[in-house]
Design goal:
heterodimer, A: mainly alpha, MetI-like fold, about 75% helix, about 0% strand, globular, B: alpha/beta, Rossmann fold, 6-stranded mixed sheet, 4-stranded antiparallel sheet, 10 strands, about 35% helix
């Protein structure tokens, strides 16, 4: 039995190592300064970079976090603190269903409700799609983390004359903060790599833009466009972009670990 | 009563019944806690003594399905009157629980100050004084005065419990409720808390729930014996332990059940 699970977990790790190794092998050689600071050049030419996609990823994901995190955390707090009734049950059920919704469906939703009425693709629509994906995830992890706080702490605060809302925020949420933060970082890392919901919202853009009302490029869209394109040069850039995106997610995951550990370190 | 009556600190339960849904766990209890005394509440597990304690500062009603009939008089006024804000009331009746419950994200100082901050509006110097006074009353000052900015979780279990007592005392309540405060402490920690009870009754009225009959004998002036939700007997501690009026009380204190 031990051997079996050891082999299985080795397989899981092996897949990850292979993907990472292949990415590095294919992409690392293309990573140079100009890759990060230059915009794409017209098809057929060599050189150029993905500066527009990197900035675009930061803007779209950042905006999605700005919209999604407060709603997700608030919902999670509500579910943990007041969500024992029928309404809470419904919210929890909807969140669970949404957690399982394919992301492309969320993209269609954003297209129907934002892109069509506005008449054009935009980074904003992409951010909203990503935020919609993020909210149920953040809500459920926040709820779990808040529920982990011992009941005795809540009682201690109430017995001290804390009003209920202040107990929730000052004592319960603060105690659960490390866990909530970790959940947020993991959530952001997950949506950072999403492609499907952006295909018909943010669309992609070969030029540099910071206007959220314009179509915008992201790393994931760039990989899609370049990877499926006809040019050898594009394939090379796609590999490099994939490596950068992977690195970005890795940094977020590490930050999540670090947040959890430093918090526990301070508390022990 | 040895001490002069100080009505402000006097607590009294009158025909108090505590229920979960339709199930009564404390039945029609009337009992007086004179000012500046320690009253021990004893009885076997599940006899309703903790629930009774939690009715005194209106914590019971926060439990699922918890509600109360009858009244609790503090300084002659019913704490269950419609006009009484339970949040305000709990600042007048401090409570310490079975297990130490320091707030893990706060420093030692902030833990003690927590109950003061919730009342708002105090200068820095005032706050420092109040925190020091509370820590001295809880006999913890000398051990923590050099590390007030350290996490409260760095303290030992016994110190944490005294920190919780300091936290409860800081807002200067009138009554102190202790719910088996030494249940998770070693003998040395237990002794400190018991000595503290003797000190603190000069300023406060204390009600202590305990499993430990020796402890009840050591710390209390009065003892109340609960059995399955009923108050069987209450009297001066030495009397209750030497000449109990009721058969059930005698059976319990001589260890025949419970």
């Amino acid at each position: 039995m031990t051997t079996l699970v050891a082999v299985l977990s080795f397989t899981a790790v092996l897949a990850l190592v292979l993907i990472l190794g292949y990415l590095v092998a294919k992409g690392a050689s293309s990573l140079d300064w100009s890759f990060f600071v230059k915009n794409p050049v017209p098809a057929g030419q060599t050189g150029g970079g993905v500066a527009n996609a990197i900035i675009g990823t930061v803007i779209i994901v950042g905006l999605a976090a700005l919209i999604g995190l407060p709603i997700g955390i608030g919902t999670g707090l509500y579910l943990a603190e007041y969500g024992s009734g029928r309404f809470g049950w419904t919210v929890r059920f909807v969140a669970d269903v949404m957690n399982g919704t394919p992301s492309i469906v969320v993209g269609i939703f954003a297209w129907t409700w934002l892109v069509r009425p506005m008449g054009h693709f935009s980074a904003l629509a992409g951010s909203v799609a990503l935020a919609v994906l993020m909210v149920p995830m953040i809500a459920r992890t926040t709820e779990e983390m808040v529920r982990l706080v011992p009941h005795s702490l809540r009682e201690a605060a109430l017995a001290l004359g804390y009003p209920r809302w202040r107990t929730s925020l000052r004592i319960i949420a603060r105690t659960a903060l490390a866990g909530i933060l970790t959940g947020c970082l993991v959530g952001v890392a997950r949506i950072a790599g999403e492609t499907a919901p952006l295909l018909f919202t943010a669309l992609g853009n070969l030029n540099f833009t910071t206007s959220i009302m314009q179509p915008m490029q992201t790393l994931s869209l760039q990989i899609f466009t370049y990877g499926t394109g006809p040019f050898e040069e594009w394939h090379r850039l796609a590999w490099a972009a994939a490596l950068v995106l992977m690195g970005l997610v890795l940094v977020l995951a590490l930050a999540a670990r670090w947040a959890l550990r430093s918090r526990h370190g301070a508390a022990r | 009563m040895a001490q002069p009556a100080d009505a402000r600190l006097q607590l009294e339960a009158v025909r108090l019944t505590a229920l979960y849904g339709r199930r009564a766990v404390v039945k029609d209890v009337s009992i007086l806690f004179p000012a500046h005394t320690v009253t021990a509440v004893i009885g076997p597990s599940g006899c309703g003594k903790s629930t009774f304690l939690r009715c005194l500062n209106r914590m019971h009603e926060l439990s699922d399905g918890g509600w109360v009939t009858g009244s609790v008089l503090l300084d002659g006024a019913d704490v269950y009157d419609a006009g009484v804000d339970p949040v305000q009331l709990r600042r007048r009746i401090g409570m310490v629980f079975q297990r130490p419950t320091p707030f893990p994200t706060m420093t030692i100082y902030d833990n003690v100050a927590a109950g003061l901050r919730v009342n708002g509006g105090r200068s820095r110097a005032d706050m420092d004084l109040a925190v020091e006074r509370a820590l001295r009353q809880a006999a913890l000052w000398d051990e923590v005065k050099d590390r007030l900015r350290k996490s409260a979780l760095d303290l030992s279990g016994g110190q944490q419990q005294r920190l919780c007592i300091a936290r409860a005392l800081a807002p200067q309540p009138e009554v102190l409720l202790l719910d088996e405060p030494t249940a998770s402490l070693d003998p040395a920690g237990t002794q400190r808390i018991e000595e503290l009870c003797h000190e603190l009754k000069r300023r406060y009225t204390i009600v202590i729930v305990t499993h430990n009959l020796q402890q009840a004998g050591r710390v209390s002036d009065y003892t109340a014996f609960f059995y399955v939700g009923d108050l069987v007997e209450v009297g001066r501690t030495e009397q209750l332990f030497t000449k109990p009026a009721k058969e059930q009380t005698e059976a319990y204190i001589t260890g025949r059940f419970g």
